[in-house]
Amino acid sequence: MASLNVGNLGDYLREQRRTAQLSLRQLADAAGVSNPYLSQIERGLRKPSAEVLQQVAKALRISAETLYVRAGILDEKEREELETRAVVLADPSINERQKQVLLQIYDSFRKATPAPAPAAAATAAAHTAATADAADAGTTEIPAGVPAAAAERPADAPDA
Q1: What is the mean pLDDT of each run of 10 residues along the chain (160 residues)?
Q2: How far apart are the first and last CA of the chain?
Q3: CA distances for 125 relative to 62, 115, 131, angstroms
Q4: pLDDT of the residue at 36
Q5: Three-class DSSP category at 49
Q6: Contact 106/88 with Cβ under 8 angstroms?
Q7: What gap in Å lies between CA 115 and CA 62, rounded to an integer?
Q8: Would the N or C end of the chain have less CB density within 10 A of its end CB?
Q9: What CA–CA distance (Å, rounded) separates 125 from 85?
Q10: pLDDT (0 to 100) of residue 115
């Protein structure tokens, strides 16, 4: 049987299983799949369904989205968006209406902001670090895109 290219999913699963100190049989039992089937996944001989990956992720106590990316079911950008949404929805300190409003704002920002090119992302990270250094040094440089009124507000001022 030829090995399938599933983005090193099998190697990653094996590493996660060993980190969790579980035998193949223990993980198979916890995930509700057969031992031989899980072994074939780890060896790259089988490509599991999203449902099986979700069961395995739950048994390993890791993100199912990470496994979806490794298996080629989901791309990295989609995973990040799903994880962000999951964190907001799981936050017990805000009510359901606040969660929905926050997700609407998040969506509007994602639509309004084009994805940065790799070089632009590195430049933005350097700019952020330089801005943080300037703030630590007590200078008043305002980063591009930040309204002056927001930048001038004292750090201890209450939010409006």
Answers
A1: 57 93 96 95 92 93 85 78 82 91 88 66 48 44 46 48
A2: 63
A3: 28, 14, 10
A4: 95
A5: coil
A6: yes
A7: 27
A8: C
A9: 23
A10: 65
Phi, psi of 3 (to 5 degrees): -75, 135
Q: What's the rounded Cα separation, in Å, for the pair 30 and 103?
A: 33
Specify the pLDDT at position 83.
78
Contact 72, 44 (CB under 8 A): no
The label of the residue with tokens 């920002």 reads 109
**CA 49/CA 9 separation, integer angstroms:** 12
Cut 0.70: pTM above it: no
Determine the pLDDT at residue 64.
85
Rounded CA-CA distance 52/67 in Å is 10
Tokens linked to 31:
């995930």
Q: Which residue has the tokens 């409006």?
A: 160
Question: Which residue in the block uniquely carries the two structure tokens 């739950």?
Answer: 58
